[in-house]
């Protein structure tokens, strides 16, 4: 993994655990991810999935976008498409691109998501309670469950809410769900 984005991400996950003084066993208990999997992840022997990152971010009390922004090299004001960090979930095929990552002096960020047909991602809890989110569908269909209610989002629809609990992203197909999410910390 070396100095690749994924390598930097894995190193940042290890440093977050160390900064909080957590053993692998303690992190396993708090995150619900096995100690063995966490160990393989920190050694770079396995790639993190969206679900794993969601659980780890919940333990660390940070949105996934903040974690990803922390491993980017040098944030700038103009972020050209080729410079935007992109992460691929090996388990679901989900692609997450940081269109406008978190930065000093800014409270909002924008994320582009592409979820393949049939893919489902569950997040057991909000990484930071009360995150303001605006989800705008660009193409495809997305069934998004928040606060126990499933919303079917179609092109042009915008769902806005404050995130407190579990969520589910599900793409019923036949094409991928393509959307933008604007996030603002509480």
Overview of this protein structure:
- This protein is an alpha+beta fold and 186 residues long.
- 27% of the residues lie in helices and 31% in strands.
- It has helices spanning 5-19, 24-31, 35-42, 50-60, 64-71, and strands spanning 86-88, 95-100, 108-115, 120-123, 131-139, 142-146, 149-153, 158-163, 167-170, 177-184.
- The strands form two sheets. Strands 1-2-3-10-5-8 form a six-stranded antiparallel β-sheet, with helices on one face. A four-stranded antiparallel β-sheet has the order 4-9-6-7.
- The longest helix is centred in the N-terminal third of the chain and has 15 residues, at 5-19.
**What is the CATH homologous superfamily assignment of the largest domain?**
Jelly Rolls
Number of strands: 10
Radius of gyration, whole Å = 16 Å
Query: CATH top level of the largest domain?
Result: Mainly Beta
What descriptors fit this protein?
186 residues; 27% helix; Jelly Rolls; four-stranded antiparallel beta sheet; globular; 5 helices; alpha+beta; six-stranded antiparallel beta sheet; 434 Repressor (Amino-terminal Domain); single chain
Offer a quick outline of the entry.
This protein has 186 residues and is of the alpha+beta class. It folds into two domains: 5-69, lambda repressor-like DNA-binding domains (434 Repressor (Amino-terminal Domain)), CATH 1.10.260.40; 78-184, Jelly Rolls (Sandwich).
């Amino acid at each position: 993994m070396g100095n690749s984005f994924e390598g930097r991400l894995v190193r940042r996950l290890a440093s977050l655990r160390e900064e909080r003084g957590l053993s692998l066993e303690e992190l396993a208990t708090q995150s619900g991810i096995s100690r063995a999997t966490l160990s393989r992840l920190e050694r770079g022997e396995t790639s993190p999935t969206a679900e794993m990152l969601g659980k780890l971010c919940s333990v660390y009390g940070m949105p996934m976008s903040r974690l990803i922004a922390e491993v980017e090299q040098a944030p700038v004001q103009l972020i050209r498409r080729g410079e935007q960090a992109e992460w691929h979930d090996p388990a679901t095929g989900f692609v997450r691109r940081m269109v406008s990552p978190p930065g000093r002096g800014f409270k909002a960020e924008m994320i582009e998501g592409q979820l393949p047909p049939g893919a489902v991602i569950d997040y057991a809890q909000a990484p930071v309670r009360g995150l303001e989110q605006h989800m705008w569908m660009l193409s495809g269909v997305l069934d998004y469950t928040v606060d126990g209610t499933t919303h079917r989002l179609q092109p042009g629809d915008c769902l806005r809410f404050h995130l407190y609990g579990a969520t589910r992203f599900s793409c019923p197909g036949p094409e991928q769900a393509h959307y933008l999410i604007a996030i603002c910390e509480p």
